[in-house]
Fold each of these.
Amino acid sequence: MTWSATARGAHQPDNTAFTQQRLPAWHPLLSASIALPLFFCAGLAFIGLGLGLYYSSNGIKELAYDYTGDPGTGNCSVCATAGQGRAPPPPCSCAWYFSLPELFQGPVYLYYELTNFYQNNRRYGVSRDDSQLSGLPSSLRHPVNECAPYQYSAAGLPIAPCGAIANSLFNDSFSLWHQRQPNGPYVEVPLDRTGIAWWTDYHVKFRNPPLVNGSLALAFRGTAPPPNWHRPVYELSPDPNNTGFINQDFVVWMRTAALPTFRKLYARIRQGNYSAGLPRGAYRVNITYNYPVRAFSGHKRLIFSSISWMGGKNPFLGIAYLLVGSLCIFVGFVMLVVYIRYQDQNEDEEDDE
Amino acid sequence: MFRRSFNRFCAGEEKRVGTRTVFVGNHPVSETEAYIAQKFCDNRIISSKYTLWNFLPKNLFEQFRRIANFYFLIIFLIQVTVDTPTSPITSGLPLFFVITVTAIKQGYEDWLRHRADNEVNKSTVYIIENAKRVKKESEKIKVGDIVEVQADETFPCDLILLSSCTVDGTCYVTTASLDGESNCKTHYAVRDTIELRTVESIDNLRAAIECEQPQSDLYKSLGPENLLLKGATLKNTKKIYGVAVYTGMETKMALNYQGKSQKRSAVEKSINAFLIVYLFILLTKAAICTTLKYVWQSTPYNDEPWYNQKTQKERETWKVLKMFTDFLSFMVLFNFIIPVSMYVTVEMQKFLGSFFISWDNDFYDEEINEGALVNTSDLNEELGQVDYVFTDKTGTLTENSMEFIECCIDGHKYKGVAQETDGLSQTDGPLPYLDRADKNREELFLRALCLCHTVEVKPNDTVDGVTESSELTYMSSSPDEIALVKGAKKYGFTFVGVQNGYMRVENQRKEIEEYELLHTLNFDSVRRRMSVIVKTQSGDILLFCKGADSAVFPRVQNHEIDLIKVHVEHNAMEGYRTLCIAFKEIAPDDYERVNRQLIEAKMALQDREEKMEKVFDEIETDMHLIGATAVEDKLQDQAAETIEALHAAGLKVWVLTGDKMETAKSTCYACRLFQTNTELLELTTKTIEESERKEDRLHELLTEYRKKLLREFPKSTRSLKKAWTEHQEYGLIIDGSTLSLILNSSQDSGSNNYRSIFLQICMKCTAVLCCRMAPLQKAQIVRMVKNLKGSPITLSIGDGANDVSMILESHVGIGIKGKEGRQASRNSDYAVPKFKHLKKLLLAHGHLYYVRIAHLVQYFFYKPLYDAAYLTMYNICFTSLPILAYSLLEQHINIDTLTSDPRLYMKISGNAMLQLGPFLYWTFLAAFEGTVFFFGTYFLFQTTSLDENGKVYGNWTFGTIIFTILVFTVTLKLALDTRFWTWINHLVIWGSLAFYVFFSFFWGGIIWPFLKQQRMYFIFAQMLSSVSIWLTIILLIFVSLSPEMLRIVLRSVRRRSTRNPNLELPMLLSYKHIDSGYR
C-alpha cells in the first residue's frame, strides 16, 4: 500500500483483507503426490470393503418360489386360471412344498415380490390421503381429490382408506407349516406379523381415527371400504393394535416401492424353535391366492431370506466396491508411470539450463 | 399563432431542414410583427432509462425479453394450468425472486442515473429576464433566453455569445469535455452586441437569430466563433452573456450522445446459447418421454391396470390434448435442467462482485480522492474478454499537461531543471563535445522562446503593473506554447506580458527587455509554423519562427540542420513534441516592404487566406536555425507500461482522438503504442492530398498498404498474435476526414470495397491511431470493429464528454474520472481515476471475473427430481451458496501474477472457457454422474432389504439417496475446483453440506400440517440407519468425483512439465530494455 493513513479520504475504500481480495487463503492443489497415495489407499480400502461385502452377501441364503400360477408350475395354476378374467377373483388356495436339507440360518424373513407392478407410477403414487391415514376425522369424511377415482364409492360414501394404493392392497396370505419327521404332522411355524413396518410409520404417520364409544367400527361409520376390499379396514386384523390404518401389512404396502419389481416384508420368523432359523425338514406354505397379477403380466413370488449387517442378498455393492477399488489402483499405477516420466523430463530440462 | 407549434414539438425525429429563428430574450423583434412562440424542447438532459411511472411495465418487458426469463414464465404458466408432478411454486418462486432482484438492481442503477441527471438539470444558472438577473435551474432554460455565465462555469446549453466583460467581446473557452482539446479557444461576441455589457442594456436587445437546425457534427459548427457549446467551460473571462439557441437534447453534446442501450456480455450470450441447447435437449427429452409413455401405455394393462384405474374425466379427455399436456408435463418435469436459480446467482454474483472493483484500493486516487466506480455490474466478466481497446488520448493516455523537457541549441543538449536563474544545467549529450553553446546563442534561443508565441498573461488581481514572476499565469490556445514559455522561464527568461504592443521579457539578469511586437504570423496547420516579427530596443527588427522540423528545415541554412536533426529525431522517437526555432534579421528596408505586404494581405477582402499565406511564405525564408525544443505531452502515470501489458495480453489498442495528427502521433510514440521500428501507414488528408481524385488516391493507398501487409502476413489471422512479436510491426494512422471518406462514400460502387480493405489493413496492424475524430466517428469506428467477423469484444476508455458515444457503443465502456467533468464516467460502465488502472482492471479483475462466472455458469448447467421443497431448496440453498462464494472469492491465480504476466489473458480471450468443448465436458460429466447415481442406487435396490432388521425401503428413500449423493458430489466437486480457500469458502461449503443434513432431518422429522403428503417423513433418518446406504453413498460420490480428480491431477502434472522457461515474452523484455536505456 502506497498511501499513508493520513491521506485517507472519505471515499477511500476500506483496506480490509476482504475488500482487497486478500483474505488469507489455503491453496490446496491436488497434485500427483497427494492424489497417488490417495488413490492407492482408497483402492485398497475399497477392495477390502468389497471383499467383506461380497462374502457377507454370499453368506445370505435366499429361497424363492414363483407362485403366480403359470400353467404347469404347480398347484397355484388352478387358482390362477380360476381367477382369470373375474373380478373379484374367487377365493382360492394353493400350497408350495419344499424341503430344507440343512438349517436355514436365521433370523429368517418372509417376503413377497411382485413384478411389473408400477407402484412408482405418478398417478398411482399420489393417490392417497396422508391426513386421512393420520386419523384426522375431517379427512376421513372428505378424502383429497388425488384419491379419485377411489375417492367416493358408488353410493357416494367417502372411501377409507381412499386412493389407488390402498385399494390395491396385497391380499394374499401365507402360513408356513413344518414337517419335522418324514410323514409326520405339519406344525405351523409362528410368523411374526408385527414389526415389519417402519417404527415411525406405525407409531406416528399412520393413526386410526379417534374411537367412537370405544369402537373402531363406529369411528369408520359413514365410510366405505375400497372397492376391491372384501372387508372394511377396521377388520383387517382382530388385534386392536394391528387393525385399521395401523395394520402393519397395510402400512408396509403404503410405502410405495421405487421400482416395478419390488419385495415387501411379510413376516419375520423368530419365535419358539425357529428363532435360530428354519431347521432341516419338509415345509409347506399355504397360500391364499387372491391377488390377480396376470392381468398386468406380473408375477408373484415368495421369498425366504436371511439378513446380514448390510441387509439382504445383494452382490452388487461388493462387486462394485471391488471393481472401483481395483480401478483405483490401476489408475494409480498409470498415473504413477505418467508422473515419473514427466518428472524425469523435468529433471532433464533443469539439467539443461 | 399555433401554426408552427404543431410541427415542432420537441426533439422529434422529423427531418431538420432549413433554419430556426430564435428571438433573443423571447421578445418580438418589432412591434408590428406578431411574436410567434416557437416550441423548442427544454434544457433537460435525460440519460436515465425509466421514470417512476413506466418503470414496472418497461422493466418487466425488458426482463422477459431474456430468453431464460421468458422460458421460466412459460414453464410457470404451464405448471399453473396443467396437472404436473411439480408444484408451480417450485418454479414460480425463483422466477419471482429473479425478477424482483433484477428489477431492484436496475431500479437502483437507474435511480443513480436520475440523481446524476438532476445534478446537471438542477444546477443554478442566471437568466436575464426583464432587466434582472434571475436565478433558475438549468433545465428551465428556454431557447431565446439570455444566460449569464461566469468564469469556470460550464455552459448550460448552446449559446450565441452576445457580449463578454472584456472590451473586445472575446471570451476563452475550453472544449476539453467535448473534443478533448484542453487548450483555450477564443470566441468572439456578435459584433453588434459587443457593447451590451450590462443587464439593462442586454435586456433591451431586440433581435432574431437565424440558425441552422441542430446537427451533431461538432467540427462543422465549431467554426462559428460566437457559438458556445454546452459542456464547454468558460475560462479566464469574468462573465459573458449569451442567448440560448439549442437546448437540452438538441445541444451538440446531446446529439453526439447516444442512447444508452442495455449491454450484454459475451458470457450472457454464451449462457443463452447453452440455454437453447438445453432447451432443445429438454424438448427432445420430453418428446421421447411422451412417446415412450404412449408406447408403454399401448399395452392396456400398463395403461390402466386394475390397481390404478383412471377417473371418468381422465378417460374422456381427448387423446391429442392429453398427449400434449403429457408433453408439457414432461417438459416441466425436466425443466430443472435449466436452472432458474442460475440467473439469481449470476445476478447476485455480478452485483456483489462489482463491489470488489469499487473496493479495490489500487484504484484509489489520492488527487481526486475517489476510487473506482461501477455503474453496470453486468459486464464484470466482459473485462476478461476484451479484444480491442479504444482509448482516448487527451486526459486518458496523457495528463493533459505539457512539460518542457529539453532543448538543443546549436547541437548542444540542455536537459533537466535548472534551479539557479543564472545558468543552464547541462547533461551529457551523445555529442562528442561537452562544452556549452555560445552564450549569445543561448540567450537568443531563450528570447526566441519568450517572444515567439501567442501566449497571454492573465492579469494578476493583486498587483497590477509589477507582476511577480512566480504568480504569472499563462494562457494560450496551445498548451505547447505555455510549456515553452515556462521552459524559458526555468532558464531565466521570463515573459512578463504585452503592454501597449510591447512584449516584455525579464532576462536572466532580472532586467526587463521590451520588444515592439510588429507582426504575428499565426500558426496554421498547412505551414505548421508560426513567426513573430519584433523590434528590439536597439531598433533591430527580428523575426522568430518556430515550427515542426519538416516545416522549418527547408527554410534555414543547410549546414545548421545536421547538428540539430539528430536531436530532433531522437526526441521524436521518445515521443516528445519537437519544435525548431529559427530566426532572421530583417533589414529596415525589407521590413518596410514586408510590412506593406502584410497589411495589404490582411486588408484584402478576397482570397485573404491565400494572400496571407503567400506573404508568410515569402517572409519565412533564409532563416538561421538556433535550436530545437522537446516538449512532453505528459503521459499518465504508467500509461506506457499499461499499453505494453495490454499488447502483451494480445489486445489491440487503438487510439481515437480529436487531436491533431502530429500531437497524437508523438503521444503514441511516447506511450510506446508505436515502437521505434513500427512502420507507419498513413491515411490522412495529407497523404491523400486535396486533389480532385481523392477517392482514387485513397483506393490506391489502400490497395498498396494491403499488399504490403498481406506480403508480411501470409498466414491466416489466427497466427497473428504470434506473428506480431516476430514480424515487422505496422501502425496505421487515419484521420477523421479520410475515415468519413472511407465509410461514407456509400453512393459509389467501391465503397464497400474500401471498407473491407480498410478493415483488413486495420486488423493487420498492431496499433491504429485515429485522429481528428468527432465523437460520433469514434463510435462509428467502434461499431465497425464490433461488427467484424467473430464479433470481437471492444472496450472503450475515455474521460470527456466527447468519448461518451464511443463508451456507449463499445461492449465495455470505461470512464476516466478526469478533469474534464463527469460526463464520461457517468455514462460508462466502469469509471477509474487513471488510465493505468485499466491494467489491473482488465488483467486481474477481468480475468478473475471471467473465470469465476464461466465456472459458475458451467457449474449450474452441470448440476443435474424430486420432492418440491427439496427441488426448490436444492438449487437455491444447498448448491447455490457455495458456488456464489466460490464465484466471488476464487482466485485461481494470484492477482499479482495476473497483473505481471499479461500473457495469461490470452488464455481466456475469445470466450475460451465457455466454448463447446468445456460445455460438452461438463454436460457429459453431468450425464455420467447422473447415470452413476441412478444405476448405482438402482442396483442397490435389487435386494430384499438394506437394513439389518429386514424392513424395506420405498421410492422416496430411493430418491433421497440419489439426492444426497448429488448434493454431496456437486458440493465436493466445487471444493475440488476451488483453489482459494478463504474462511468464507470453508464456511459455505461445509456449512451447506451440514445444512443439507440438518434440513433433511428437519424436513423429515416433523409431520408438516400444511402438506398434503407426508412422503418425506423420516426417510432421511431411516436411510442413514442403513450401513449399505452409507457405503453406497460413499462409493458413488467417489466414483463420480474421480474423473474430475483425475483431470486435475493430470493437469497439474502436465502443467509442471510444460513450464517452459523460453516462453518469456520478447515484448516485455524489449520494453524493459527500452526503459533502462532511456533513463
Note: The CA atoms of residues 733 and 769 of chain B lie 5 Å apart.
Amino acid sequence: MAVLKVKFTKTKRDKLAQVLWVLNWISVVTGLILFSLGLFLKVELEKRRELMAERELHSVPNMLITVGLIACAINFLGGKICYDCVDTNKFLRWKLVMLPYIILTFFFTLCILVGALMCYSMRGELEEALVVGLQDAMRFYKDTDTPGRCFLKRTVDLLQIQFQCCGNTGHRDWFQIQWVSNRYLDMSCKEVVDRIRSNVEGKYLMDGVPFSCCNVNSPRPCIQYQITNNSAHYNYDYQSEELNLWKRGCRQALLEYYTSIMHSIGFIVLIIWLFELSVLTGVRYLQTALENVLRQGDPECESDGYLLETSLAETARSNFNIIKSLGKLNQINTTDSDRDPNINRPSTAHYGPDNVPPKQIPLAS
Amino acid sequence: MLCQNIHCGLFEFCCFNWIIISGGTMAVLKIKFSFQRRVHLAQGLWLLSWVAMFSGGVTFCMGLFLKMELLRRAEVMHTTDIHVVPNLLMVVGLASVGINLFAGRVCQDSMDSTRFTQWKNVMIPYFGVSLFFTSMLIVAMALSYALQPNLEESLKVGLKNGIRFYKDTDTPGRCFQKETIDRLQVEFRCCGNTNFKDWFEVQWISNRYLDFTSKEVNDRVRSNVDGRYLMDGVPFSCCNPASPRPCIQEHLTDNSAHFNYDYHSEELNLHNRGCREALVNYFMGLMNTIGPCVLSVFFVQMSVLASLRYLQTAMAALEGQENVEVETEGYILEKGVKETLNEAKETLKKLLQLGQVDAEPAPGDAEAAEGKAAS
C-alpha cells in the first residue's frame, strides 16, 4: 500500500519536470534571500556590538548565511536534475543520485526549520546581553579619555537620540552613576566635594541626565539638571511632567527593535521552508514515477508516483533492517555461508546406507 | 549604384528621379540602408525603446524622491520655486514612457510596410512633441543649478521664522516649530541659521516658563528695547554627541561659569555649521547625484528618436514599391537645415492665415460685378 499514490501520464510527467525546473530556480532565489537576511541580521548586530555583552548571538545569523548558500547549491543541482528528467534517457544518468539527493535535501530542510526556530528563541540571550552591555556602556560614558572606551559616550548619545530612550530601564539609571568625568569637576568647590563625600564609593552623583535624554516633543525647553527638585524650575512638577525626557528605557527599545527584525526574518524563513518542502515532494513524485516507467519498460506508458512505496511502518522497519545489516558487514558470518552457493564446502547430503555418491553421467557431445 | 539592385523598369524610372533630386538638394546625415540593415535597425530600436522606457520610469522615480525630500522640509522653506525641478522630472518621466511605447509600436509595424503607412501622418508631430519633452530634461538640469540662490534665500527666511517661533508651542499654527527645528538640528547636525549665535538674538524660552518675580529675569528682560529674555544659551538639539564632555548649553560665552572651559577653543561642544548651509549642501548633493543620471537618460532618448527618424525615412522611401528588399536611404532632415526651417515657417504662416477672413474680393468676382452693373 503506497503512501499518497498519484497516476502520471507521459505529458503529466513532462509537465511536472518542467514546473519543478522553474520552482528549483525560484528556490535558488529564495536561498539567496535567506543568505541576505542572515547577512542583514549580522550587520545589525555588529552595529551595536559595543552595547551588547559577549554572548552567543552570532550563531543565528551565521546559521542563516550557511543555510542560504547550501540551499542555493542544492536547488541549482535540483534544477539540473529536473531539466534532464523530461528525457527518460537522461534520467538514467541521475537515477542512482536522485534518492540520496532527496534524503539529503529532506534533512537539509530540517536545518532550515531549525534556523527559523532559532530566530524566535534568540530573544532571551539578547535580553541578557543588553542588560549587561547597556549597564557597562553607561558606566563608561564619562571615560572619553580612556582608549577603547572613548567612543562609548557618542554611541550612547546617538542611541538615546535615535531610539528615543533614556537609560537602561528608565531615566533614573543615570542618577546612580557618575556620568560627568572628574576632569570637568571643580574639586575646590564645596558643593562638588559635598556630593562626592555623600556616598561610599566617592562618586559624583546627581539627579541630572545627559542632553540625549531630552524629548524633542516637549513644549518647554529641556530640563536636564535637578530633575527631582520642583523648586529649581518655574512652573515645574516632576511627578506630572511627562514630555520632558524620553520615557522608555533603552533596553526595552533595543529589544523591541531586534525582536521585530527577528520575528519577520523567522516568518520569512518558515515560508521558505514550506516552499522547499513542497518542491522536495514534487521531486520525490517525479523520481518514483520515472523509476516505475523504467521498471515497466515503455517510456510512453502511465506510471504511478508515490511518496513511500510501502506504508510508513513497513518502510521504517525495512530501513532499520538495512541499517542493522550494514552494521554486521564486518563480522565473520558463519550462518550465511550455508546459503551461499559459491563457497565450496563438503556435501552433507545423505546418499543411502553406503553413503556413496552416484556416478556422474557424461554429457553427450 | 542604387540601380544595380533594381530589376523592374518602373523602379529604374524612380531611381533616375531619385538621383536627380538628391543631386539637387543636400540631405542631413544621410545613411544607406539595405534590407538587412533596416531589419537590424528595427530590432535594435525595439530593444532600445524598452531600455528608454525603463529609464523614463527611473526619471519619474527620481523626480518623485526629490519632491518628497523637499516636501519633508517644507516647514523651513519660505517659497516653493525649487519645486519646478522635480515637477519637470516627473512630467518628462511619464511622457517618455508614452513616447517610447509609441516608438516600440512603430518598430513592430515597420516589419510590415502596409501597416507602417498608417503612422505616416503622425510622425512629424510626434517628433516635435518628443523633442520638446526631451529638451525639458536639459532645462530641468540647468534649473537645478540656476535656482540654488533661490533655495538658499527661501531657507534663510524659513529658518529665521522657525527660530523666532520656536517658543510659541501654545500658538495654533506654530506649535510644531519647536519640534521641527529640534529634529532638524539633531538630524543634520547643525545649529541656528548661519551658526549658533543666532540663538543669542532670539527669545527661545516662552514667557510661560519664566519666573517674573525673580530679579535676574526682570533685569534681562529690561536690558533690551523689545523686552525680550535674551541669553547666551542654545537649545539642547544644538549639542554635539561627539563632544568628550557633557554638553554646555547655558552661559556659553562665560568662561568662569564652567570648570576647565574656554569659549574660543571649544570646538566640539555644539554643532559648528548653520542649518541653512547644511540643508543647501544636502539638496545640492541630491541634485548632483541626479544630474548625471538625467544626462544619460537624455542621451538614450535622443538616440531612440534619431534611430526612429532614420527608420521612418528609410521605410518612407519604400512607399509604393513592390520589392521591399531594395536598398533605401535614411536621413535626419530631407533638405538642409536652413531650407527646412524656411519650409516650416511657410507651413506655420499658412496655418495661421487659414483662420483669417478673406476681405479682398477675388479679381474674377469684381469683373463679374462690373459686368453686371454695366449690363
Note: The interface with chain A takes residues 169-170, 175, 178-179, 182-183, 186, 204-206, 208-211, 214, 235-237, 239, 241-242, 244-247, 249, 258-260 of chain B (CB under 8 Å).
